[in-house]
What does this fold into?
Amino acid sequence: MTATATKPRVSIGVPVYNGDRYLAATLDSLLAQTYTDFELIICDNASTDDTGHISRRYAERDPRIRYVRNKQNIGASGNYRRALELASGEYFRWANSDDLFAPQGLARCVEVLDQQPSVVLVYPKTRLIDQDGNFISEYDDELDLPMDRASVRFKQALSRIGLVNIIYGLMRTTALRHTGLLRKYPGGDIPLVAELTLYGTFWEIPEFLFFRRLHATASSSYRDNVGLTQEFFDPSTKGRFSMREWQHLGAHIRSVARAPLPPAEKLDLGAFVLHMGVWKRQTLAQELVGAVRHWLHTNGLREKMIAYLILFFALAEYA
It folds into this structure.
């Protein structure tokens, strides 16, 4: 396959911040793809290392590469969103700036989406590698979801999801743009994956074609992004109290509300999300207590009186 002069069929977004250590290797693996009808958009999140120099060098060598630099750091979630905004292809994938991709990976994913109109996301199996590219282990995402009912796919995704390698699969751009995208808080990729199940099926290619690098400075090294601060995803949240479970619950409610589903499916999913809230009620109450205590330290007397009332009811629920 050769690249065409018209709009590319595939867009690959490479969001990067201070990624000069592995960026060249990642770009080399993407440019080595056997499927070549793609554009490669490097979104530099105001890096302070050699990322810009490396990116410009590659862009000068290959017309398929576009280098865009943000004027300031807009957070990881904002940078991922920016990459999608700039995409023009029918299919889209994010490529983390430190991961590697087998040469036939893109071709295999395009083949599935071309032949299976019900599939909105296709991904290959994953091998985990260390900072030097050495094999660590195979990782089973278990997110092959061919079920006809969206409600079943949604529930299965939330029960199985782990490292969320699946967001580096190939997606239908239109379907992805209908979602809330990567949310601006820890674990914000989980609501995205769950929401995508409401627009179509997931397909797993039974070949190890994706190599996710785990190292000390990568978000990949945290399971479900635990350990990363909210500020990492959205710098404007600096100093705010993180309410991860409340944010996830709210995201699921909004996902179900906007999805193009029959009323019966929405009712089923609404009941499921409410049940999730009941099951996690202690964690939700703990987060509420923590948020109120944070508020008490940062606001005046009137606000504190209101906060004390909220704290009283939250503690009553937790008890």
